[in-house]
Amino acid sequence: MSKPILWLRCEKKEFERRAALTPTTSSKLIAAGFDIFVERDEQRIFDDSEYEAVGCTLVDNNSWPTARTSTPIIGLKELPESTDPLPHTHIQFAHCYKQQAGWSKVLSRFHRGGGTLYDLEFLQDANGRRVAAFGFHAGFAGAAAGALALAAQRGGNELGLLTPYANEEAMVNNVKELLGGSGKGVRALVIGALGRCGRGAVDLFRKIGLDEDDILKWDLEETAKGGPFSKILDVDIFVNCIYLTSQIPSFVTREQVIAAGKDRRLSVVVDVSCDTTNPFNPIPIYNINTTFDKPTVPVDVGGLPALSVISIDHLPTLLPREASEQFSSDLLPSLLEFPERETSRVWADAKRLFLEKKVEAVKAEGL
């Protein structure tokens, strides 16, 4: 019987430094009988030599299309836009199950190629909880980016290029320094505060020195009556950490912001959830994803005090090594079951969902 294989592809998204498999988890998979192929990648936070040292086989950058179609390809972010059919099995975040922009075109590539998608966002345990998620680090990094944007705005500037940090301590120290030594006096509101993402945002705000009373922690109870919420305008930073599954009332609107005039305190919105192109986006004050080299987009507020939005869809890469290690470790038990994916509940459920969504995409594309 041949060994199970996983092929770690390089990430083509600009500034993405994380990895779905780390040298640590690769070593454990190899010990369990897997062959691990790793594409050479200078952008990845882990050096090629770290994978080679634990027994991985190094292959050329972006060479996965030449792999046998029976070889499962694992990555994190979506593949570059293309019309090429996809004949392989892919494990990744594809961002195409909630009718995001271009969703049907992505899925139609699998239909035409005969490949399969196992979307990492929809690998769930028996309780419906994701088996692995970057939520905590997304919230932590998002709150940090929001604080950096606030510091820049107070200095009359826009936030410039965001550069990944070596570790959490370096990030916290840098944010505190740019805020003048501490975040004391800053007021923040986190919606989705009880989830992994929200807990990460709250943790960052605590570590940079915000008073506990200045960290407003909202979840289902506080948002049950439906927005827009005027209290959002009374904080410096608003961080959205919800997991959107259906249409809900907007949390904040441009009309509401303009009506508040110069009495508004809100300066920075961090949409960690990043449902930018989702038709149900509850923060309809912006319409583009921002990037590490241009992390904020201004809201048109008609000459009133500045308001900017951060909508980066891979914020955890600000802490690439720690975020990758945590995610990959959480994913490992499921990866060990991947050879039995037809019967393993986590993988079988994910494939069933893929097939359902593919049918919708085929219909939408008229194939």
Automatic annotation (TrEMBL):
Monomer. This is Saccharopine dehydrogenase [NAD(+), L-lysine-forming]. It is an enzyme of class 1 (oxidoreductase). It catalyses: L-saccharopine + NAD(+) + H2O = L-lysine + 2-oxoglutarate + NADH + H(+). Residues 171-303 form the Alanine dehydrogenase/pyridine nucleotide transhydrogenase NAD(H)-binding domain. Belongs to the AlaDH/PNT family. CDD domains: SDH. It comes from the Eukaryota. GO terms for molecular function: saccharopine dehydrogenase (NAD+, L-lysine-forming) activity. SUPFAM superfamilies: Formate/glycerate dehydrogenase catalytic domain-like, NAD(P)-binding Rossmann-fold domains. Keywords: Amino-acid biosynthesis, Disulfide bond, Lysine biosynthesis, NAD, Oxidoreductase. Gene3D superfamilies: NAD(P)-binding Rossmann-like Domain. GO terms for biological process: lysine biosynthetic process via aminoadipic acid. GO terms for cellular component: cytoplasm. NAD(+) binds at R129, G195, R196, D219, T223, Y243, V272, I312, D313, H314, L315. InterPro entries: AASS, AlaDH/PNT_N, AlaDH/PNT_NAD(H)-bd, Lys1, NAD(P)-bd_dom_sf. Its EC number is 1.5.1.7. Disulfide bonds join C197-C241. Pathway: Amino-acid biosynthesis; L-lysine biosynthesis via AAA pathway; L-lysine from L-alpha-aminoadipate (fungal route): step 3/3. Coiled coil: none annotated. It comes from Laccaria bicolor (strain S238N-H82 / ATCC MYA-4686).
